[in-house]
Amino acid sequence: MRVRNLLCLVALSLIASVATPGSLMAQAKKSPTTDKKGTTVPADPKKNPAAASKPAASTAKDGALEMILPTPDGWQIHCTWFESTAGRESACAILLTSTDGVPGKDARNRRVWQPTAIALQKAGFAVMTVDLRKHGDSIPMSPTGEPIPMKISNADYPLMASSDLETVKAFLMEQHKAETLNIRKLAIVAMGSSAMVASAFTIEDWAKTPYPDAPTVDQRTPRGQDVRSLIMYSPNTTVRGLNTSALLKTLKGLPVPVYIVAAKDNKEDARNADKVLKAVELKGDQFKDTRKLLLTPGQTHAEAYLEGQLATATQKDIVDFLTKNVKELEFPWTDRTDRRTK
């Protein structure tokens, strides 16, 4: 508890600085799209092949729910929802694959998370696996059922944080209001480029000021500060459209445990992982379990940790870290409705 309090004190000095109109994601939230001639045009769900008018859901195997969540700018974000049976005190986790589009090396969709999601569900977590825009099932399809080739642009990675993940959190918030989970205990596990997307979203989440529905700040209903832990596998520190150095510098000051995993014989991954640790590391033995790096033997990269002989150990590692740093937090469920609307 002492460690968490120390981290909170560090965070307070940074919240005001990121909660400004010029915040890291502000421009991305307003970014237009471009047509084939390079002309900027606003997102139009009626014309955008990625558009959806309302959420859709269908039951998958293992009792999971396949969902399509429409974003404000017209994208259909495909997700799989694993509801917890532990009720309103359930911690929750968002699981993200790498986001490199159709031609991306070793591209996989959210289904690679299935065994991990089930392991977390059995441990008392509610879990959402997500294909961010232009990745996995969240790629528009042609009338013949083929994915439409779409390159990920500089604007897309910021929008994955400010639009896609905000849409996912909005769904989780509805689940919180329905008392099926506790949004105050939210974690994100991300692969490759998605690690920086998760970092950007976490910073935005912590920058949200409470509703002005009580005389003092500590009495007001929070709108954010819900992401309580990040796990990054093979994090990519060069992500188009994101200032990763600024992100990591800000992340350092937030009371969010960060666990980085990479293969020591994969030189690029090991170098990136070391860069992330040095950027977010806090000195002192009291922080050694909340800002940590694991370098594994071999050249395993990103989603490969979830497959083959490494799968069982990876699942256990994720469950153990999130249980200690998220599930066991002393944050009981509270109503998150703006009191002014009651």
Task: Pick out its properties.
9-stranded mixed beta sheet, two-stranded antiparallel sheet, Rossmann fold, disordered N terminus, alpha/beta, 342 residues, 31% helix
Question: How are the SSEs placed, and which strands pair?
Answer:
Blueprint: H1 2-18, H2 26-29, E1 33-34, E2 40-41, E3 56-59, E4 65-70, E5 76-82, E6 91-96, H3 114-122, E7 125-131, H4 156-177, E8 186-191, H5 194-207, E9 227-233, H6 244-252, E10 258-263, H7 267-280, E11 291-296, H8 311-327
Parallel strand pairs: 6-7, 6-8, 8-9, 9-10, 10-11
Antiparallel strand pairs: 1-2, 3-4, 4-5, 5-7
Compute the number of structural domains. 1
In CATH's first tier, which class applies?
Alpha Beta
Shape: globular
**Intertermini distance:** 34 Å
Specify the CATH homologous superfamily: Alpha/Beta hydrolase fold, catalytic domain
State the CATH architecture. 3-Layer(aba) Sandwich
- Percentage of residues assigned to helices: 25-40%
Proportion of residues in extended strands: 15-25%
Task: Briefly note the CATH topology name.
Answer: Rossmann fold
Question: What is the radius of gyration computed over CA atoms, rounded to a whole number of angstroms?
Answer: 19 Å
Describe the structure in your own words.
The longest helix is centred in the middle third of the chain and has 22 residues, at 156-177. It is built from 8 helices and 11 strands. A 9-stranded mixed sheet has the order 3-4-5-7-6-8-9-10-11, with helices on both faces. Mean pLDDT is 85; it is low at 1-53. It has helices at residues 2-18, 26-29, 114-122, 156-177, 194-207, 244-252, 267-280, 311-327; strands spanning 33-34, 40-41, 56-59, 65-70, 76-82, 91-96, 125-131, 186-191, 227-233, 258-263, 291-296. The two termini are 34 Å apart. The protein has 342 residues and is of the alpha/beta class. The chain has one domain (2-31, 53-209, 223-333): Rossmann fold, CATH 3.40.50.1820. 31% of the residues lie in helices and 17% in strands.
